[in-house]
Amino acid sequence: MSRLPLNILPTFRVVARLGNLRAAAQELHLTHSAVSQQIKLLEEQLGFELFDRRGRRIVLNAAGAALLRHVEPALDRLDEGLRAAVATAKGEAQRIRLSLLPSFAQRWLMPRMPRWRARHPEINLEIHATQQMVDLVREGYHVALRQGAGPWRGLQAVQLIDSPLIALGSPAAALRLQGRSIHALAEEPLLGRASWWERWFALGGYRVAVNPVATFNDAGLMLQAVEQDMGIGLAREVLAADALRQGQLVRLSPWALPDATAFAFWCVFPPELDNWPPLLAFRAWLQEELALSLQGLGDMAAHSDPLS
């Protein structure tokens, strides 16, 4: 097989998307004949057909679909690189496409956005909050903030913080529990996973059968329920840091359930972006802000414990 004709690949992508040579020609500002000849040349150089012809429509065959899966992300990355180069040359803002969990976006990242804009007004963030693990390369994201063990195949990962689970209540709950034993907490309505609570109680040698009154697929929702005094929750310390400092939540015990493998937060990105200046700036800012958000939490654990 001869070299892949890179100059034809953008045409291939448009034709594959539209399934019509005339429509592709209009979008590309080329003649119908020119587009047809480019696709023919691409197939001749590859030595096999990429499309099935069905009247006026052409539809990707299996080989064409396989080529598109690998070509499209590469073209998207080239387009992004060109836009970044143009923006840099003109002194305009660059953009980072970021994927992360809704809970981390809501409870930690969004309150810090004004400081990010003040520090880096030249770098825009496009934030995509989702419970799903997106394919960064295929879907055109530059970076993800993920939680778990990793590794993530084909990506570079930098651990940001290992945040343990701590027991949290509203100020009203803390007042009810003031000076009481750990047994009193077990009698409160508990929120979250039973297995996590049972492991948390086991830290103090207690064997407690837990039947939570509610479970959540998002930690941000659970923390809202705790703030509204629906029950006592177990949450990652970093997600509760702001609410603890502002008095919306109270840490009820110094016990912390560690699990570096399952609960660590990571910054994950394609290896080729390791030295990309906007991403370097974002990673440095993340580390700085995480350090700031955890300042004083150790003192809170030692001095704001209402349980005896």
Structure description:
Helix content is 49%, strand content 19%. The chain is built from 15 helices and eleven strands. It has helices at 9-18, 21-28, 32-46, 62-90, 102-109, 113-119, 136-139, 171-177, 182-186, 194-202, 219-227, 237-246, 260-263, 277-294, 297-303, and strands spanning 51-54, 57-60, 94-100, 123-129, 143-147, 156-162, 165-169, 190-191, 232-236, 250-257, 264-269. It has a five-stranded mixed beta sheet with strand order 4-3-5-11-6. Strands 8-9-7-10 form a four-stranded mixed beta sheet, sandwiched between helices. α2 (21-28) packs across α3. The longest helix is centred in the N-terminal third of the chain and has 29 residues, at 62-90. The mean pLDDT is 86.
